[in-house]
Amino acid sequence: LADHYDLVIIGSGGAGLVSALQARELGLHPVVLEKMPTLGGNTIKASSGMNAAETNVQLRQGIVDSFAEFYEETFQGGGRLNDPALLEYFTTHSGQAIDWLRLHGIFLNDLTLTGGMKKKRAHRPESTAPVGAYLINNLLWLLAQVKIPVYTNTRVTELLKDETGKIKGVKVELLGSEKTLKTKAVVLATGGFGASKQLLKRYRPELAEYQTTNQSGATGDGIFLGAEIGAQPIQMELVQIHPTVQQDTEKVFLIGEAVRGEGAILVDQFGERFTDELGTRRVVSQKITALPERSAYLIYDQAVKERVKALAFYEAKGLVLKADTLTKLAAKLELNASALEDTLRQWNTVVETGVDVRFGRTTGMTHKLAQAPYYAIHVAPAVHYTMGGLHIDQKARVLDRNGAVIPGLFAAGEVTGGLHGNNRIGGNSIAETVVFGRQAAQQAAVYLED
Ligand code: ADP
User: Fold this and answer.
1) Rg for the chain (alpha carbons), in Å?
2) Whose CA is nearest to atom 24 of ligand 1?
3) Within a 10 A sphere around the Cβ of 100, how many other Cβ atoms?
4) Is residue 362 over pLDDT 90?
């Protein structure tokens, strides 16, 4: 670790690695500091995709999309609580972000739907690799090519300002000792606080005992680091529960929205549907929590399995029940077999007619569930994402309690608040890390030039 860097980037998830690469390409010499022994944060676990509109990938599939629709659907999905300026910047730079990745050999050429979106705009790799791991592994390789130093087990414990209020350095802890690094600019890319019992207790006490899909380092450090030098946390009570998390094994597994996007349905303990499976995460979670067993079963057939590559992975992990017939599947789940058969018959009529009279589902219903074998995964909601975080502007500059810029301090990704409103749409967090990770580095470069 040197004594001085142009730019210190805290966190090695999507936001941190993207901003490091962008910074290097603008002529800066950044360093990435990661407190955990492993790299990639929560990003490496992401499975749905990266949302973007007006892309060539979409056009190649005949999907004519617009930034305006992307904006509007995200705004509605977020309870209209999204910061309009951030959302505007985000949606109108999403297509460019896909192009930027492509220029770096990162190809997201497959498309799927996520809850709350009417058009296929979740871009993901064509290979079996989940989007997060694919992105992180490629970015780490790219960082190595341009010799950007990345340190693990290195925790930032304090941000330092000079007497005029500008960033002048950071304090870090590594291998039990403390060190001060000089720098004029910092990007906070420390992720959210889904794994912090302390912060959940403070802002959403009723969620503190829920399981979480987050890695154990998602403890909101960036919120504390920023707040200590005047940054303003906003919308901290807006915590996302993901509706379909398998929790019967010691390690929990998020079962991505793509499974429903490709045609799976949810049934309750009576073998009946109870919701539009592709409503927003907020609504679907509420519906599951309202069931007597507070859990549900994802049901799909062989054809869905073949369309969603991740399902083979879940099966290998032992999360999936499989049977040659629906009757046998019902027996394994201890559900009423004729009720489950009725449900599938009704569902196939919905697919045929294109109208879901009971629940109003309008997406992910292009294929019947009719091809044996049949599968089920037991799922329930878990803490997944924290929409709240540090207040930033369109330039990814961190703002203080009076709305003034803290000179030299930038933030990107889940550590920031405001973009998603009260519900983050699946596929928007990866997009956020790329769009705002780039922006933070670009604006840091402008700042350092002045
Ligand atoms: P995002 O999706 O916004 O990029 P991630 O959760 O993927 O967020 O990554 C954030 C990373 O920041 C995690 O790997 C986390 O361990 C790391 N991190 C959090 N706090 C600190 C800290 N104080 N010092 C260094 N790294 C940190």
Assistant:
1) 22
2) 155
3) 18
4) yes
